[in-house]
Amino acid sequence: ARALPGRRDGDIAPYRHYARPRAPGALHTRNIRTQYSHGRSVCRCARANARGGSPPRLRTMVFLGRMPPMKIYPAIDLRKGRCVRLRQGKAEAETVYGESPVEQALVWEKGGADFLHIVDLDGAFEGHPVHTSLFREFANTLQIPFEVGGGLRTDADVATVLEAGARRVILGSRAVSDPDAVRKLVAEHGAERIVVGIDARDGLVQVAGWTETTSVRALDLAKTLVAAGVRNIIYTDTATDGMLQGPNLRAVTELARCVPEAWIVASGGIHAPSDIEALAALRLPNLDGAIIGKALYEHPETLSAYLHAAKSAGAHT
């Protein structure tokens, strides 16, 4: 079989054919990955089929070899210009890990990370981006891409952060209140640049920096957003975030199986490389990777171990 670029930057994998999934859940077969066509897609055959601002069209890629390894996304949370972590998302439970977020980003980059997850906590609490100048500094300093979330409540906010150098943006509260706006942003910027973060506790979506719990079920929201063209979802179990007790494997599994058309990144609770192995053992073909926060700051030297676990997990799928 020929080799074509995979969905993620740098991924190469053999393929046999493309086919539309017959029904939800059709991607539960081992060694199946999804590919999406849009104007900016890395897949040449998909790019040829793109149609202007239309939502990405789903293709199923069947791999004859091993699946790409999971990605590890080190997290950098910004508050008052510093690198911090909040316990359970509470502003009063703050731990400062560094005065220079850019220097911290360089540490993760030099340690082997190839994508960073950045959260503007002040933006999340205030409802608009606060650290735009820092985003530009990240873009001018780093050789690896990064994504940004926190306070992106308007189209102008999204455009500002993308122009500042973010590879992609993460929508949270707005995705809950206005799915149609998300649809328009996907059409304008491309599905690969618009990510939705679903933060949930006990299956219910939380917004406004986890300060408000809605009556919306995470699974229902995911279905709505995928119908709107979203193809990348970050799922955070807020009950486990920052607790270092392991990820909510059941919740991750339910979400991934609920929307097999979308790539899922797990967040919350990861405390050891064994958690990455546990996620890989779920054998979810649309599980893209995991975000790691507090565990890395408490033990920075373990980044290589997480990366090794992710790579080994891909080698054994």
Task: Give the DSSP E fraction (strand runs of 2 or more residues).
Answer: 25-35%
**Terminal-residue CA separation:** 19 Å
User: Care to count the β-strands?
Assistant: 16
Supply Rg. 18 Å
Count of runs of 4 or more consecutive helical residues: 12
The coarse overall form would be globular
Biggest sheet: strand arrangement: 5-8-9-10-11-14-15-16
Order of helices and strands: EEEHEEEEHEHHEHEHHEEEHEHEHEHH
In the predicted model, the low-confidence regions spanning at least 5 consecutive residues are 1-65
Write down the overall mean pLDDT: 80
Strand count, sense and barrel status of the largest sheet are: 8 strands, parallel, barrel
Q: Please identify the structural class as seen in this structure.
A: alpha/beta
Itemize the secondary structure elements and their pairings.
Elements (H helix, E strand, L loop, with lengths): L2 E3 L6 E8 L12 E6 L6 H5 L8 E7 L7 E9 L2 E5 L7 E5 L2 H10 L5 E5 H6 L5 H10 L4 E4 L5 H9 L4 E4 L1 H5 L1 H11 L4 E8 L2 E4 L4 E6 H10 L4 E6 L11 H10 L4 E5 L5 H8 L6 E6 L1 H5 L4 H13 L2
Parallel strand pairs: 5-8, 5-16, 8-9, 9-10, 10-11, 11-14, 14-15, 15-16
Antiparallel strand pairs: 1-2, 2-4, 3-4, 5-6, 6-7, 11-12, 12-13
Descriptive terms for the model:
317 residues, alpha/beta, four-stranded antiparallel β-sheet, 12 helices, 16 strands, 29% strand, disordered N terminus
Short description:
The chain has 317 residues and is α/β, with parallel strands linked by helices. It has twelve helices and 16 strands. Helix 9 (249-258) links the parallel strand 14 (232-237) and strand 15 (263-267).
